[in-house]
Fold each of these.
Amino acid sequence: MSIILVIKNINKRHYDIEDYNSNIQLKNDGSIGVSTRVQYNIHGKYDLLVIPQALPKDVDTINNVEVYEIKNNKQVLLKKGTNADISKEARVNAGKYFVTSDLAETNTKVKVRIYQPVENERVTYKLTYNVPNAVINYGNSNISELNWNILSNWGHKFSNIDITFDLPKKNPQILRAWVRGTTNGKITTSKKNGKVNFNLNSLSENKSLHLRLICSKDLFAYNTNNMFKTPIPTESSIARYEYKNSDKVKRNSKIKYTGKYISITILLIVMAIMGISSWRVLSRNLVFIKLS
């Protein structure tokens, strides 16, 4: 029985993401241009691969989508499927891609479906698209903000995650960024180069990564996506909020709570043992007194 189970696990198809590299260009009209390179390590046979992307709040579309297959350092543009193709079998749609969207609880999740038969091999795809109104201008503050779901629960393991965000201009007065979803990883900001970079060696299954980036509002002079918020957002208030809600603080708080719970449990056990021992001693003394 155990041998059969092992054979089944070996033959079970799955894939991991061995390399995930993305560059996000922030534009002065508040839109962003995304270029993502994904390398798959395929175990088993697939006719369809899906790349999901959760969009910022109140953003429900992407445009100018293009998908390339990368082979031998050459890019081959795949053909975009039509509505009439969707009902066809996956094999018939080989070499095509489709863009669909699903309304989630708080945002829209776009899915790029790539129809390409693959089996026990490594394949690489490049995906480019634009997202309008991704950046928010706080009209009563000197801050603009981008909330970006770097990865949105693919259900697969990731390795070598590298994400770069480029601002419209260099040397902004304000530039800060935070990532939620992991206590590992390294995030660096460079005002001089107008860049933010996030690097993570690995990410387990069913995990999501979310980035919050704030910078000077004057970088987005042509952005009409304005919001007024109370209290007025400031660099320090946002930094305090992100620190209190960071994965590291939550983890330390959980460890501290668990430590207290364990200490109290041990104390109660010791008190119970002492109580039982004391009762036994008291019972013996009562017996001696009665006999005498």
Amino acid sequence: MTPRDALTPRAPFPERKLTFTADPVTVAAALAAASDAPHLLYERDGSVVWSEGESAVVEADGTTARLHGADVEAAELPAGAHPLAAVGELLQRHTGGVGSAHGWIAFELTHAYHGGDVPAGAALARFVVPEREIELTSAAAVLRAADQAALDELEELLRAAVRSAGEPPGTRVGVDLEEHAGRYRTAVADTVRAIRAGELDKAIVSRSVSVPLEIDLPATYVAGRRGHLPARSFLLRHGGWEAAGFSPEIVARVDADGSVTAQPLAGTRALTGDRAEDAARRAELHRDAKEVYEHAVSVRLVQEEMNAVCLPETVRTEEFMAVEERGSVQHLASRLRGRLAPGRDRWDALAALFPAVTASGIPKRNALDAIRRAEPGERGLYSGAVVRLEADGTLDAALVLRTVLRRGGRTWLRAGAGVVADSDPERELEETREKLRAVSGHLVAVSRAGVPGGAGASTGTGSDTGTGTGTDTGTSAGTGTGTDAVAVGVLS
């Protein structure tokens, strides 16, 4: 282990602020499409941050957290029983708390916290201190890079992205929503028997479907974002993973003042686009005993997890069983908030709430056993988290659902449903179809020339094989062409 005083924290990046009137989503996606470097696009509450490059990397497996990079003195810590704390310690040593970072957490990291065999070798969490980044809102662009020359280069990249955002991509790619349907019914039935036998209360059982053609991830991201109002969205490429996601909920948010927020979603009905039909399904959600029970026990566990790291008297359910629309589906949604207890930090809060109860089950240890019996292979990034860390200490972790995933030359979608004692295998299968359609209707093929089609959304259709057409159900977040959108000069 390298001693603390051997590491030199980096200085804060200089910033350049420019006026900006284009669409942040399409411009950030164009930046990603033009990049050969590792990157993350992360959207939250009207702000889109595109981070590129790796000045330092912290990776954790089941035994060790390691800091490394081209110009970084390597260091490591035992992962122990709290790998995320080791990750946080190494990031703090390197940055001194200056600047932002981002990363991802695989679902299997949960075994380090809740028991079970932790997969050997491969990284289960990977965090990056970027070399440069651009933060975009509807009014401004803030550029951060190592020096003025690097800022000049970054500004040129931004101008090029503004010019290219909106070029038409390829046609849509269909998928077979019935892939592994029979195996999924069997897995749900087996899990129901385990629940009725008293082994657990709830488990989220998932299945994957293959994407048969090569897709343009930045174009898919923009097309999907136009069909969603997600809690968070992201476009990721680093550490062997590529993903475009439209997260329906957060795992956790920890603000700089120690405020902790969680937002469990459980209970699902399809959105059809017909206002009367959707209202009827929304009312049905609140009347369905199975859906209400599934949601209530999830909220109860989140409250218990927050009590473990927050001052218990501060933990409140601020919103209970509201309905949130997320692309092709609507969910029962609650929001809980508390304040960190003395001696606890953002990594403790994330560890307490990870994996999200709405992607694992109750109790989590028993649910993990049920998931391993029900699902072949590891989940990887699916139902893990994509995390953004701000310089002020804020942590924002998006749950990796409604996501197209690519790794090792394979591309796929995955969706699950919450299984409880009253679950019906056919209904849970239909719920996975409903969730898969949130992404499957927006997959954009790489152009026949082999060049990504750009960041704009296609008007092509391309229906899913199986039930439903996978058509868009939402509207665009903005379509500004932005040819002259970036102002010349730095604003005061």
Amino acid sequence: MSFPARMAQALEARRAAAGWRQRRLVTHNDTRTLEVEGKRYRHFSSNDYLGLSQHPAVIAGWRQGAPGAGASGHVTGYSRCHAELESQLGDWLGYSRALLFISGFAANQAVVHLLAQKQDRLLADRLAHASLLDAASHTPAELRRFHHNDVDSLTQRLASPCDGETLVITEGIFSMDGDSAPLAAIAAATKRADGWLLVDDAHGIGVVGKQGRGSCWQQDVRPDLLVVTFGKAFGVSGAALLCDDATADYFLQFSRHLIYSTAMPPAQASALLAALGEIQRGDALRQRLQDNIQRFRAGAAGLPWSLMPSASAIQPLIVGDNHAALALSQRLAQAGCWVSAIRPPTVPPGTARLRITLTAAHRPDDIDALLEALHDATGE
């Protein structure tokens, strides 16, 4: 089949399954509200959990740095801002080293690609992020997936013999279900099997734990490899790998993602330093977010759809059918609430949902307006 014929077939199948993805031009976004095609909405699809993308200190930090690094960090792209950010991240999270990446996707790809060799095995949570599973599936190592957040399932796979090394892969808070991994039990099982643990804490860092140190800190776990991303609670973009000295040196010498990619702009590193300071002082923001989560869950208790048991900012409302999820999203938009419908293949078939995300920027009347629109949509 030719490339054009193959693409046409795939696109038609995606349309028929009500899985068509569409970018919409956003003309205003302040975390709490969103303007699309001239209409203003209350915004419930943002990962900017603390509202820091709009914080004056973060904006000022960005303006203080150069807009481009100009080269790889191995050439001339490694600036004082980069070094300071790595140092502060390491001190804050209890690691001797931190390495910066241009995105969370790139960080996960870099870690898994570099470490996994043919004789090794990768044991990943079945619902781990696409960046982790894609990376794992493209290595020569054996990939096996354990049942979601199921330590017994992981333990059974760890009991099988392996000629090489074992890397266990999971997340702190899962992006589509909003639930937390039992990191202490996973870490203990991994250690008993002499494996290494990789935790992607994209949705936990900044939001949970002392000073927002994340899911691992909250559960008193120190994984061998910790990836934190900056596109959620930090309100910017990028990511960092936290590890020991020897691992950092290995990555600096052999990671193609670091060696052959232009470093993040110094302006971005400067903004992230400002965001880190706000996160460390952000107890009031975290409490406001928790208040909004509790308010929403209390008001959503009587809805006919299944609200997943999430204590995080991610509140998935399972609708099931793709067409029904799209229709509900459109109904909410008519009521002035922007909530994205998430459909397969991002989530398993039959679990299309509204991925409602709450932030510290939301006000009580925003939460109440969303709840009213949801109850109105039931037709009761």
Amino acid sequence: MVARAYTVAFEGVDARQVEVQCAVTPGIPAFSLVGLPDKAVSEARDRVRTALSSMAIALPSKRITINLSPADLPKEGSHFDLPIALALLAALDIIPADAVEGTCSLGELSLDGSLVPVIGALPAAMAAAEEDRTLLCPKASGAEAAWVGAAQVIGAASLADVVRHYTGQSPLAPAEPGEVNADTSGRDLLDVKGQERAKRALEIAAAGRHHLMMVGTPGSGKSMLAARLPGILPPLTAPEALETSMIHSLAGLLDEGGINRTRPFREPHHTASMAAIVGGGRRASPGEISLAHNGVLFMDEFPEFPRTVLETLRQPIETGEVIVARANAHVKYPCRFMLVAAANPCKCGYLSDPARACSRVPQCGSDYMGRISGPLMDRFDLRIEVPPVAFTDLDLPPSGDSSAEVAARVAKARTLQNTRFAERAGMYLNSDAEGEALEDIATPDTEGRELINKMAERFGLTARGYHRVLRVARTIADLDGAETVRRPHVAEAVSYRLTVPTET
């Protein structure tokens, strides 16, 4: 008799079903594991054997063979422990085989039989729902996996609890979805003295998910402004939270007993490698751009990043997805993020500061900002100069609106966009609009069209730049509550497009 249990193997954010077959046959006592397992999976037999011994379950003096099917699919990770144990217990008639076959399971076993949380519980729950199976996972992963309402999720603290559940001695209650709320109230836009134009640019960028470049001298407040972005962004919707959390689950970032509805804010250091930013490594893991999906990717000291890393951002910015290709893997990850970049105007940082002298003006700024290619710079919808703030201004009272007030306007603008793109596949916000959809929603009035055409001719806007101005103008009109794009909206959008501090 062959007993069967089911689990998953991960390929990007997708979870492929794996059938765990167990046969106990006469022969020389052995415990063999086949089916292209990696080192962590091969070690599962020792963990399973010891965990069963801790429950006073002795393995028979027979040959035990575990096959992981399909055999040509690489199996990686320690989450195969629990399904292997279930298949073995079913083969020994300790738990009902039919109940095990109706379950998809994953979890790592400790030597005392307790279950350790593993990555990927959320994608596994999605796969279990597609196969109409119950998901069995460690108790600590249950709150995360229970977000998939189409699948029943059972969380167990130990293998003994699993046995008692299947034998009817002590059934386990289904897990409840958990939610973690991050506190972003500590950072308010009112903390930033001055910089009204930069605050306005942040609001526009947040409302339409537009990419933003800030250039200014050291200490002008670029990082401080970017750190306040999470406080003005609306929380993730349920579908967005599920989509984002599937990536975070694979990266092992959901360790607080539930899903976080706060939008991701990732800020990698400028020494990060291409695999860390874009994704890769031995397992083709998601990178920072995918971990920032539906959120913000803040790259401080932007020109200091390696040129190869910066250039790889061009395609993900346009398509909203990245393909990590390796010799043994070809994985696609979503990455619709808002890129916020900050840079000094030159190597020394004080190119535009009249109070300090730079001996290499203007060559210093040209060389430094020249590390950012023209095609990449063209992908920024908003470019602003952040001027230095005098220390005497720090004693002034707060100015402008609070983060709560700005967040309310951003939420209202995003609600308009969600309604506008409800029936357009692949479009969510103004930054996604293209082709006929862009013409329908962002064609300006006669005066606005004359202005943008004049600016395009005078400053040599590319076709991409022209369309990005229209998208920003549409977002400004949404914040203004206007149904059509008018000349003032176009004028403001063009002003952000043409502000290139490196050309001063």
